[in-house]
Amino acid sequence: MSLAASDKHNSPLKSLPKSPTGISGLDEITQGGLPAGRPTLICGSAGSGKTLFSIEFLVRGALDYNEPGIFMGFEEKSEELAQNVTSLGIDLNQLQHDKLIKLDHVHIERSEIEETGEYDLDGLFIRLGYAIDSIGAKRVVLDTIENLFAGLTNQGILRAELRRLFEWLKQKKVTTIITGEKGDGTLTRHGLEEYVSDCVILLDHRVNNQISTRLLRIIKYRGSMHGTNEYPFLINEKGISVLPVTSLTLDHPVSSERISSGIPTLDKMLDGKGFFRGSSILVSGTAGTGKTSIAASFANESCLRNERCIYFAFEESPLQIIRNMHSIGLDLQKHIDKGLLKFQASRPTLNGLEMHLVTIHNQIKEFKPSAVIVDPITNLITVGSVSDVKSMLMRLIDFLQAEQITVLFTALSLNNVVNEQTDEGVSSLVDAWLLVRDLEANGERNRGMYVMKSRGMKHSNQVREFVITDKGLSMIDVYLGPDGVLTGSAREAQQLQEVTGTVLREHAVSRKDREIERKRLVLESKIASLKEEFESVQDELNKTYIEDELRKEVMDKNREQMTRSRHNE
Amino acid sequence: MKTKDEIWELRLYIAGNTPKSQTALSNLKKYCEEHLKDKYIIEVVDLLVKPQLAEGDQIFAVPTLVKKVPEPIRKIIGDLSNEEKVLVGLNIRPATK
């Protein structure tokens, strides 16, 4: 569900033809590559990666874009060069054999050369022209042509000839990279930028806090849009990768699918369903609050769903984590055996932030996980400033969200200002933030957890007690006693007390019941005796009444007889 | 410093028949006749005809004169107009007079 990306190439005009470098990231920044058929200057100080950069340009061109290339080196011998790039998995000898790349070393030895009178560099032109024609090259690298200045004294001729060389290369329609050593206050020591005006890329190598970062910047790119920032880049065994600092748009797809956190009670706090797929989650807390356990539970749950998960550990070794997680009943080893879980452990100080980011990128691209754990991000502070870490995490989150990968970060928070900042810095980036806290009371420490934020879902605002048992993690409602929030043994004591109370109350109730029963019985027997009494009184009364009746009857009879006897006389 | 039995093997690289190569060749011939009579061989290589030879002798400028024998190998680039420099370069005359 991506929103339409910003219109990129809508112009009907034919834009500058470009020659893709194949260097990941660079083609994005340059919107297609270097200007085709024109010279590009790559400058930088010693060891900034100029040669490697140009070699990669040639090799990618030869292998991926079917554009053979010439490497004319003025510094390193061809054999040395071939050897040097073997470490990057590039076999220059094979490429030379396949006629995809031709190396030519121009050896200039000051002591062997005398200059007398007029000359020109036609020798170089012929050599280059011959090389280009022999393999049909489309790309040329001149590394570092400024060495000519060291070998030759007649600068006037040299400058005129260089100008002619670049013109000639343009006519030859080869895409050329010229490397140049950075000079004092100028881009190159001998002002090559004067001659190469189409595209200039500056490579830099900076060391901050003993950790080096390589940076790339496009100073100029005539006739094309290009990214203007400084982009960190990396050289590793797979060659060069450039990272755009930020992805320009916020248009990654979103999913409304929910995935469990691996802790059922935590899911309940999150609207009963858990996290969104592809969201970013931060678990922060002080030392020993169980952040890694939460992370491991999440990893475990992902693997149980048969989804891949990759765990970047910056504090503990994989074996340590696996051992420790056994204590809470998680068997991570079996997921590793199945190939669902992968640990990538390294000390943050191993390399700079950028290198970490690229390592993470590469690992993710290779392993294709659906969940990623970074434990903990706070250790990265040791290799960069807060804003560096934030920018790195932002890029990481962007990348992961674009790939629909759920990510869980853990962060250690101490009670000092710097780390509060970290939390703040990162927390605005993440979608869900769980906070684990120590609740210290009555001489014991308990863990409390709450959901600080969780975008796009109804979530609990309650502090829950977070318990770690040998069967896993669980959340218990904090007991709200008459004296406030109770946790841990205080909570248990309160619960016990309540149970006692119930028992006592039940006992009391039953005793009262019995007494009532007894009273009822007493009363009932009283009622019975009264009834008897009443019956005897009734009988008595009845008796007199019947006697009266009888008497009256008899008297009536007697009177009647007497009356009758009187009349009959 | 010249040894009697040594032969100067000289190779002059040019790119086409340009005024510069003409000057270089005539200068070279002149010096050789003067200083190395009967002890030199001049080979002229036109890179326009044989471009593949440029790499072998590390040629990047023309005209270039390469002295292969006697050792050490020396290269002199330019139209060889400065006689002093050429002679020093060819080890015909010691650098310090």
From TrEMBL, chain A:
One of its GO terms (molecular function) is protein serine/threonine kinase activity. It comes from the Bacteria. PROSITE patterns: KAIC (PS51146). Keywords: Coiled coil, Hydrolase, Kinase, Phosphoprotein, Repeat, Transferase. The keyword Transmembrane helix does not apply. InterPro entries: AAA+_ATPase (IPR003593), Circadian_clock_KaiC-rel (IPR051347), KaiC (IPR030665), KaiC-like_dom (IPR014774), KaiC_C (IPR047222), KaiC_dom (IPR010624), KaiC_N (IPR047221), P-loop_NTPase (IPR027417). Residues 17-256, 257-489 form the KaiC domain. It is an enzyme of class 2 (transferase). Its EC number is 2.7.11.1. The keyword Transferase applies. Residues 513-547 form a coiled coil. Residues 1-30 are annotated as: Disordered. Residues 1-10 have a biased composition (Basic and acidic residues). Transmembrane segments: none annotated. NCBIfam families: PRK09302.1 (NF006799). This is non-specific serine/threonine protein kinase. It comes from Spirosoma telluris.
UniProtKB/TrEMBL annotation, chain B:
Residues 11-92 form the KaiB domain. Pfam families: KaiB. It comes from the Bacteria. GO terms for biological process: rhythmic process. This is Circadian clock protein KaiB. It comes from Spirosoma telluris. The lineage of its organism: Bacteria, Pseudomonadati, Bacteroidota, Cytophagia, Cytophagales.
